Amino acid sequence: MTRTSPPGLVAALFAAGALLAAAPAAGQAPDAEAPVDEGEPSAPPGEGEEPAGTSPDTTAGSDVSEDEDGDPAGSEEPAGTPPDTTAGSAVSEDEDGDPAGSDETADGPASGESDAAHLAAGAGGGPEGEAARAGGGEPGAPPAASPGSAPTDEAPSPAAALQIDIHPCVGVVPATVRRVTRIELDSDLELAELTPRDVTRVWVECARDDTIALRVDDPTTGKTVTRRVDLSTTAAMARSRLLALAIAELVSASWIEHRMRRETAVRAVDATAAAPIRRFAGALAGRRLELPAAPTAPGPDRPSRRAKGLLYGLVGAAGRPAHLVGGGAFRVFVDLGERALLATAFEVARGEASAEGRDVLLHRVSLSTTFAFRERFGDLMLAGGVGARVGRALLRGRGAGGTTHVGAFGGAFLAGDALWRWGRLVLGARLEVGTITLPVNGTRAGRALAGLDGGWGTLQLGAGLVL
């Protein structure tokens, strides 16, 4: 059996549905009049979800377009006008569901505002505001440059033009090397890394034969210079300083090119450093070049290579039979080079010998020449060599019936000399040992009694002047 609904019942059902559809819009106004909890934190940025049950502020059947804050399109509200929260009016809300005008926390700017506008308004949110607060600046100011930020296009300071890379195998203290190098080149030099085209780099590495290899890549002149140094015998505590001196000398040798009167005819391809850096390098090298020469360290006055004349007194033994002799000599020393000298002497000596109960006087006059090698030790000079002597001797017997005999004699000898100079004054000592190869003897009945024969030896002490 089919039952039909009366037309009046159908119309009532349609009316009830229309009322239910309009119920949410009508219930929105009381929610807007509720007091806003100021202590409730806003939702984090990016979470723009609206509370459940919230719908756009549009009434059923309304064809008026509205902007994001609920006002009719094209309408403008004067600055400082409080939102209309009366019953039946739509309240504008931001993306996180808070009423417009409520305080935002520093978690982020409100939806619909750009970061630049937020910084200009002084809110200080976003990464720019964080950077401004970290650097102590005002919100909205440009962030301070960090140590790792890229260099600007401005010319770098010419005071930082050197970088030193030292391999651990070298066995020095890198900090000491860099500090001493800076002092040697310039006290204002900062060992900071610039752009690759401006920095002069020094590479220190181990080389063969226990030596150290230095390489300077110089962008101010566009060349590379190398050198090997030997610090194997240097004390460990002095290696760092000596290495720094070697680095400063090699860098200066490269930079000195900037002190040339004219530019090079052809520009080097690798000369990539900026003009201020090149001028700075040239100024440093110029100051080292123009430094006055270091004064000669005071030391002992070495004997000059001029001739020296000395007057000696001598004492010794000579002849057969052996007897004491005494006398004097004048000797002149002439340097023949760094290690050789020639000495020429005129000598007079006298002695007395006893033979078969008779005394014999011996007088002699001779010339001698000595060729010797020498070595200097400050003011002291030691020499040793060989020489020859020739002369004439007079033998006279004492007492009645004594006779006189004159003859030539000669011989060879070994000699050693020590000379000490004080200003122009020269003190000398000489030891001479020789043998007579051409003797002279006094005879009786064809038999030799006494004379200059056999060997001789003398010790001579003298003083003289540099001629």
How does this structure look, described?
By secondary structure, this protein is of the alpha+beta class. Among the domains are: 162-289; 308-466, Porin (Beta Barrel). Helix content is 19%, strand content 35%. The chain has helices spanning 7-26, 28-33, 115-120, 126-134, 174-185, 236-255, 275-289, and strands at residues 162-166, 200-206, 212-218, 223-229, 308-320, 323-335, 340-355, 358-377, 380-397, 404-422, 425-438, 440-444, 447-466. Strands 5-6-7-8-9-10-11-13 form an eight-stranded antiparallel beta barrel. The chain has a four-stranded mixed β-sheet with strand order 1-2-3-4, with helices on one face. Strand 6 and strand 7 form a beta hairpin. Helix 5 packs across helix 6 (236-255). The chain is rod-shaped and about 200 Å long. Residues 25-160 have low confidence and may be disordered.
Task: Write the topology of this structure.
Layout: H1 7-26, H2 28-33, H3 115-120, H4 126-134, E1 162-166, H5 174-185, E2 200-206, E3 212-218, E4 223-229, H6 236-255, H7 275-289, E5 308-320, E6 323-335, E7 340-355, E8 358-377, E9 380-397, E10 404-422, E11 425-438, E12 440-444, E13 447-466
Helix pairs in contact: 5-6, 6-7
Features:
single chain; 467 residues; Porin; eight-stranded antiparallel barrel; four-stranded mixed sheet; 13 strands; rod-shaped
Query: Per CATH, which architecture of the domain at 308-466?
Result: Beta Barrel
Radius of gyration, Cα only, in angstroms? 56 Å
Number of helices: 7
Give unreliable regions as ranges.
25-160
Q: Helices and strands: which structural class? A: alpha+beta
Q: What is the overall silhouette?
A: rod-shaped
Measured by DSSP, the beta-strand proportion falls in 35-45%
Main pleated-sheet profile: 8 strands, antiparallel, barrel
H and E string: HHHHEHEEEHHEEEEEEEEE
Spatial order of the strands forming the largest sheet: 5-6-7-8-9-10-11-13
Distance between the first and last residues' Cα: 164 Å
- The CATH class name of the domain at 308-466 reads Mainly Beta
Oligomerization: single chain
Helix content: 10-25%
Strand segment count: 13
Query: Would you give the CATH topology of the domain at 308-466?
Result: Porin
The averaged pLDDT comes out at 69
